[in-house]
Design a protein that fits this description.
globular
């Protein structure tokens, strides 16, 4: 693959930006699905803290301050290792592919910068603000309808527990193109799945304490998950 030298940068630069944003959405969608799959257990464990212990089914979705799931574990800002580790591998692989394809340095730089900034904005900044009360985007006329719609779909993601105890809908954050394409889109809240929630509690060793879920002390529960916890 190469960038045709006869094409104007006025065409190539916007095309690079658009393709990079779409690729970032695609990769973010599948990474988010991976984090809910237990296929790489230590990554899923980090993500389930956010889902079951902080913003789980039946718990308030919004507070005055964001409740960070990366406290007391390695993170960059509020981005945990479950996002950083696979993202670094993906970026390195994409850089290597562009270098092997002899992409000009300008377009490599634009692509890698976009592939870094877009996920940070979507999966960190925007995601966290969806859990804040009275965020400025919901008061801004030009953004209000989009933001409230995306936030509602994300709320559904947090409540949509299937019979196996996994959240299986709405893996996008601000946009849900790939949820539509891969049929993981849910537009309405489902009735609370008590059997699925019980399955999740059993799988992850969660117990109830004063109306909240906390990790149980029996760590042998993790041996039943695919992969290994370390």
């Amino acid at each position: 693959m190469f960038v045709p030298s006869q094409m104007s940068p006025l065409i190539l630069i916007p095309c690079t930006l658009v393709i990079s944003c779409l690729l970032a959405e695609f990769l973010g969608y599948w990474l988010h699905r991976l984090l809910h799959s237990d296929r790489i257990a230590f990554l899923s464990r980090g993500h389930l803290i956010h889902h079951f212990l902080i913003y789980g089914p039946g718990q308030p979705m919004r507070h005055q301050e964001y409740h960070d799931a990366s406290d007391n574990r390695f993170s960059v800002g509020n981005v945990g290792l479950e996002w950083l580790f696979p993202s670094a591998i993906i970026l390195a692989a994409l850089w290597a592919l562009m270098a092997l394809a002899h992409f000009p340095v300008l377009y490599q730089t634009i692509a890698l910068t976009t592939l870094t900034i877009w996920p940070i904005f979507m999966f960190s900044y925007l995601h966290d603000r969806m859990h804040l009360s009275n965020f400025w985007m919901e008061r801004t006329p030009v953004l209000r309808v989009w933001f409230r719609s995306a936030r509602r779909l994300h709320d559904i993601h947090h409540h949509a527990v299937n019979d196996h105890g996994r959240m299986d809908a709405n893996f996008g954050i601000g946009f849900f193109l790939f949820d539509r394409l891969f049929r993981t889109m849910a537009r309405r809240h489902r009735p609370f799945n008590r059997a699925g929630f019980a399955a999740a509690r059993s799988r992850y060793g969660l117990v109830e304490c004063q109306g909240r879920l906390i990790p149980g002390t029996d760590l042998s529960i993790y041996s039943r998950l695919p992969g290994r916890f370390t």
